[in-house]
Design goal:
- The radius of gyration is 49 Å and the shape is elongated.
- The chain is built from five helices and no strands.
- Helix 4 crosses helix 5.
- The protein is mainly α.
- The longest helix is centred in the middle third of the chain and has 40 residues.
């Protein structure tokens, strides 16, 4: 089916144009048919007999509005802003908690280093020195203290 150049007049398509269209269709059909698989060979007359050309007006051309916009919707910007704000707040909270932990560790270190000297001016014997060293080891490195105790128990 072909739409005539003048939609109101079906005869506006010339006979020469119709013949050209039939000739093009015949060429397309001849080149697309596989000669080896065809059971019977079709000559040019058979192919031309199978082509039917009809001139008829169609419903016309569809006109599309060219208002296609490739923009990002506003809600994506809003969601992105909210997510960015949440990430910033989480980072601030994380850094604050880290600072307070560091501050607490510094306070503990200051407390440990500023121990009050022993008011007992006893003469330190070998046993009291060992006891103090063991207490200090137990406070500072409990894992090593536990290993030491296990080794003593294993010896006994």
């Amino acid at each position: 089916m072909v739409e005539p150049p003048n939609v109101d007049d079906i005869n506006s398509l010339s006979q020469q144009s119709k013949d050209d269209i039939v000739k093009v269709l015949g060429t397309i059909i001849r080149t697309t048919i596989d000669k080896d698989s065809a059971e019977e060979t079709l000559n040019d007359e058979d192919i031309n007999n199978k082509i039917a050309l009809s001139v008829q007006p169609f419903n016309g051309k569809v006109e599309f509005k060219n208002e296609v916009k490739n923009t990002v919707p506003v809600w994506i910007y809003i969601v992105g802003g909210i997510l960015l704000l949440v990430i910033i707040i989480l980072l601030i909270l994380f850094l604050r908690s880290r600072r307070t932990e560091d501050f607490e560790e510094e306070e503990e270190m200051i407390d440990v280093s500023a121990e009050v000297p022993n008011l007992n001016n006893e003469t330190e014997t070998e046993a009291t020195l060992k006891r103090k060293q063991l207490e200090k080891l137990a406070k500072e490195k409990p894992d090593e203290f536990a290993k030491l105790l296990r080794s003593w128990i294993a010896e006994d």
